[in-house]
């Protein structure tokens, strides 16, 4: 399954399919980006990060793509599992002079068995 | 080290009361952050420390909010004269200064003001 456009509040996929979650960020000077997974009642859990001098980074079952031209970030999850069901947030660090992160709107991923 | 710890997990308070939350970061992390999250929204930055120094504060941090990190280890966030609009999840995170910025979050303190 794939979210259409830049952001969808909810993405529903079949177990075993690949998922793509999209995010538009706001600041062209942002130098670092993180994807977080948040389950109900828990704090955000780090999934994968990428620096602005890269356009792709792979982890275990996850890939982050960065398109600085259009200020777009995506998270690809391979072979989505029921345990992947959660809210996913992208976050950007707006400059090298700050430590704060700015979070985007979350996307709820629902995995159907 | 089991990660970032926050205490309490839940707090219910009456409007007008003061509350204080505690955060214990990962021990080797120099930076500590406070965020606030309301239902259905992403976390919003409040403030952060590098060691003992408070380096940045958001405009969201009104004069009723104060955060401290006196010895560069644990931090406290105090809210005075709580209002119903303060009801939220208060999240703490920590990170090293250099290298992997991968901020690690705690489980948060859920504040309900009645």
What does the model show?
The complex is a heterodimer of chains A (113) and B (114). With 113 residues, chain A is mainly beta. Chain A is built from no helices and ten strands. In chain A, strands 1, 3, 4, 8, 9 and 10 form a six-stranded mixed β-sheet that branches. Chain A is globular and about 45 Å long. Chain A starts with 9 loop residues before the first strand and ends with a strand. By secondary structure, chain B is mainly β. Helices cover 0% and strands 49% of the residues of chain B. Chain B is built from no helices and eleven strands. In chain B, the strands form two sheets. In chain B, strands 2, 4, 5, 6, 9, 10 and 11 form a seven-stranded mixed β-sheet that branches. In chain B, a hairpin with a 2-residue loop joins strand 5 and strand 6. The N and C termini of chain B lie far apart (35 Å). The model of chain B has no long low-confidence stretch (mean pLDDT 93). Chains A and B meet through strand 3, strand 4, strand 8 and strand 9 of A and strand 5, strand 9 and strand 10 of B.
> What's the total count of β strands of chain A?
10
Oligomer: heterodimer
Which structural class should the secondary elements of chain B be placed in? mainly beta
| Major sheet attributes of chain A | 6 strands, mixed
Mean pLDDT of chain B: 93
Strand content of chain A: over 45%
> Based on DSSP secondary structure assignment, what is the total number of beta strands of chain B?
11
Give me the strand/helix succession of chain B. Answer: EEEEEEEEEEE
Query: Sheet bearing the most strands of chain B, described?
Result: 7 strands, mixed
Shape of chain A: globular
Continuous helix count of chain A: 0
Please bin the fraction of helical residues of chain A.
under 10%
Most extensive interface between two protein chains, with residue counts: A-B, 22 and 26 residues
- Rg of Cα set of chain B: 13 Å
Q: Radius of gyration of chain A from the CA trace?
A: 13 Å
Low-confidence stretches of chain B: none
Uncertain segments of chain A: 2-6
Name the average pLDDT of chain A: 91
